[in-house]
Design a protein that fits this description.
The structure holds two protein chains of two kinds. By secondary structure, chain A is mostly helical. Chain A contains 14 helices and no strands. Chain A has one domain: MetI-like (MetI-like fold), CATH 1.10.3720. Chain B is built from 16 helices and ten strands. In chain B, strands 1, 2, 3, 4, 5, 6, 7, 8, 9 and 10 form a ten-stranded mixed β-sheet that branches. The chains are: A mainly alpha, B alpha/beta.
Chain lengths: 288, 443
């Protein structure tokens, strides 16, 4: 009897074991190793040499600033866009099924491929200039991707990133929308709410948990936006993620690369805690 | 939480490499066959060269096609991936999978302790006409021969003929100076309103090589020793001048052949292998000419790629046999035809060469035989510090040219970083800097 009892008690833990092992071996261990790389010298002694080297690097301040600017530009735009798209899909207008498929297409494209695709749009002899010239709107091609006009480069990256990754947010929001019981809508209709009123007073509050997940995931992804920046901006726009890559591949210095990774971890961690606090989900919503 | 990219990509790359190796030993080996069963164990030929897919395929299906020795699996990837893999095998010891490595001169430094002395192998090719300079470079400024020269390349200018009408009067396009190039760019801007010179200054570009092998020695007669000299200040002023007439999208260019082909620029300065596509595609619209000369001469960089045998080779005879095959005249010409790298052994360039390649071959020979020509090797002896060294230079460019910082201040600060890389590596002076007993010193 007790052996059986023990087995029943142990079962949940046994079932958890694979995911715990996965997390420990493939996420926690490398994370710990990266931390060591950032603070250990070649002789194994603790040192701040690598962190100092990172902080004194030409690109460090720019990288932090650009990463934050991108975050501020990309995340809100995508959340709003995804929300509109999700409501459109959810509104069951004619052809709403097709909308979802079309919105999801960019998800199937690798981020570097997406970056190169948008490069072919924005480059000097690209599609955008060809179209504008064809319409007679401009005389000669405009150079969009120049370090001399960094705002346009930012804009190009935001467009490329929004195109590529908005669908990710969309999927989460649609899942959230589908979880809202129909009764609420019917009740709202009964009280004479119009579409807008229904959206503001019923949908948005009930969508809060999904919005929170979407924000966290999207923000972390925004920190690691890389390929689009790499393709569209080259060396014009250093970002934290790109600097980690450059230090590892070009400079072959895994210590400084790990220091950058550490910065990224701190930034993403801070933002996640911030979201959890600010968008704190009430018990009544979790218990739904 | 996000795992650090560096570790993840390294792990991914390593597993991919292993996977590739595992797959290929089961597949049909290049050039192998049932009759080659007595040639010993198959092995991997790992190289940092020919990473574009078509070039890889050319190596496997054309260059190695008639090789009859042990099955060879050509594996190529970015420098860090290949060097990591070689290092891993060396550290593991015993018998590895890699039997031959094909690396740039500077890349051997990192892994030199795991390489055999190939002095005896080198002796076999005494009569092949390999330049003595190249053989010496293979010693990495020591006594041991770490590699046998395999192939070479260089950098020069590719020019759209549309630019010719704006060439400053009195300038010979085949013997340009940097001042004339600047005047040419200005002329084009004045007449057309466009900045038509292109420099590869993006990610994955070879801008550091242009600085190390062209601008610096041509203006200062040195590189490390003269890094913050008065001549260097003059040079940076000239580069800033040139930049005024350079397409600002240059900071996104990695391979100049692409903007040349789309006519975003008319004049492009880059590595031969990064210009060849446009020359092959439009041989009648383009010309290839030697790099410009500066006050100290027409310095140009010779990129030398060598073949080394790891101590952990699984098939010693096979490794040596493959070197033998790769140095045969027919293979050297096949390498030129397919992948645009030039022979290191003495060969007669065939007359039926592709028109684009002919343009390149012509530019290479004009550059090498110009009366003020002075060849420079890739940096020697920097080993793992090569990345820091390159970064110090590219950051100098970034700060002075793009961010418009004060030249003297930047040179002072960046030369300290450059010096640290050289001192840490213990690299003696090389090429234009002459010789030194200790690490080369910025003066």
């Amino acid at each position: 009897m007790s052996a059986r009892r023990w087995r029943e008690d142990a079962l949940p833990f046994a079932l958890l074991l694979p995911s715990v092992a996965y997390l420990a071996l493939l996420i926690l261990l490398p994370m710990f190793q990266a931390l060591l790389l950032a603070i250990q010298g070649d002789d194994g002694a603790l040192t701040t040499e690598h962190l100092q080297r990172m902080a004194n690097d030409v690109n460090f301040r720019d990288a932090i600033r650009n990463t934050l600017v991108l975050l501020v530009l990309i995340v809100p735009a995508q959340i709003v866009l995804a929300l509109v798209m999700a409501l459109l899909v959810h509104s069951r207008i004619k052809g709403h099924r097709w909308l979802l498929y079309i919105y999801a297409i960019p998800l199937a494209i690798s981020d570097l491929a997406a970056g190169i695709l948008w490069l072919s749009v924005f480059t000097q002899q690209g599609y955008l200039n060809t179209v504008l010239q064809g319409l007679g709107l401009i005389k000669g091609p405009i150079i969009f991707l120049s370090y001399e006009n960094i705002a346009l480069v930012f804009a190009a990256i935001v467009v490329a990133e929004s195109w590529r990754a908005t669908a990710l947010v969309l999927v989460i929001l649609i899942a959230g929308l589908q979880l809202i019981p129909r009764d609420y809508f019917e009740a709202a209709d009964l009280f004479g709410a119009n579409r807008i009123g229904r959206t503001i007073h019923v949908v948005l509050p009930l969508l809060r948990p999904s919005l929170q997940s979407a924000l966290i995931i999207r923000t972390i992804f925004a920190f690691t936006t890389f390929a689009a920046v790499f393709a569209l901006a080259g060396r014009n726009l250093p970002i934290v993620y790109g600097e980690a890559y450059n230090w590892y591949t070009l400079s072959r210095d895994s210590h400084v690369a790990a220091s950058y990774a550490l910065v990224l971890l701190l930034m993403a961690g801070t933002m996640t805690v911030f979201y959890l606090r600010v968008l704190g989900v009430g018990k009544e919503q979790l218990g739904r | 939480m996000k795992r650090p990219r560096s570790l993840r990509s390294a792990a991914l790359a390593a597993s991919l490499a292993v996977l590739l190796a595992a797959c290929s030993t089961q597949g049909a080996p290049a050039g192998g066959g049932p009759e080659s069963s007595d040639t010993g164990k198959g092995f991997v030929f790992a190289s940092t060269q020919f990473t574009p897919t078509t070039e890889q395929e050319n190596v496997r299906n054309k260059i190695l096609a008639s090789y009859k020795g042990a099955p060879v699996d050509y594996v190529t990837d970015a420098e860090n991936v290949i060097l990591d893999r070689i290092t891993a095998e060396i550290k593991a010891g015993g018998q590895g999978q890699i039997g031959l490595v094909g690396l740039e001169n500077g890349q051997f430094g990192t892994i030199a302790n795991g390489m055999q002395d190939v002095g005896k192998v080198m002796d076999k090719y005494k009569d092949k006409g390999i330049p003595a300079d190249f053989v010496n470079l293979g010693k990495l400024s020591g006594g041991t021969q770490y590699y046998v020269p395999w192939m070479q390349a260089t950098y020069f200018l590719a020019i759209n003929k549309k630019a010719m009408q704006y060439l400053p009067s009195g300038a010979d396009v085949n013997a340009l100076t940097y001042d004339q190039l600047i005047a040419w760019g200005k002329n084009i801007l004045d007449k057309t309103g466009k900045r038509m010179i292109g420099l590869p200054a993006g990610n994955n570009s070879l801008l550091h090589r242009l600085l190390q092998g062209y601008f610096y020695p041509s203006y200062t007669g040195g590189l490390v020793t003269t890094y913050k000299s008065a001549d260097a200040e003059t040079m940076w002023k000239a580069i800033k001048d040139l930049w005024q007439y350079t397409n600002p999208q240059s900071t996104t260019y990695a391979f100049m052949q692409d903007p040349l082909q789309s006519e975003e620029v008319w004049i492009g300065f880059d590595h031969a292998a990064r210009l060849i596509n446009v020359l092959k595609a439009k041989p009648n619209d383009f010309m290839a000419v030697p790099a410009p000369a500066g006050p100290k001469g027409r310095y140009f960089m010779t990129v030398l790629v060598g073949l080394g045998i790891p101590k952990t080779t699984p098939n010693q005879k096979g490794s040596e046999a493959l070197i033998d095959y790769l140095l045969q005249s027919s293979t050297q010409i096949a390498t030129l035809r397919e992948n645009s790298f030039f022979p290191v052994v003495k060969v007669d360039i065939p007359s039926d060469l592709d028109a684009g390649l002919k343009l390149e071959a012509d530019a290479v020979s004009k550059q090498a035989t110009a009366k003020d020509a002075k060849p420079v090797p890739l940096p020697v002896g920097l080993g793992a510090k090569g990345g820091d060294f390159n970064k110090a230079m590219v950051d100098t460019f970034q700060r002075i040219v793009i961010k418009n910082e004060d030249i003297k201040t930047v040179l002072g600060e960046q030369s300290a970083l450059l010096q640290k890389a050289v001192t840490d590596a213990g690299a003696k002076c090389w090429g234009p800097d002459g010789t030194s007993s200790g690490p080369c010193q910025v003066k």
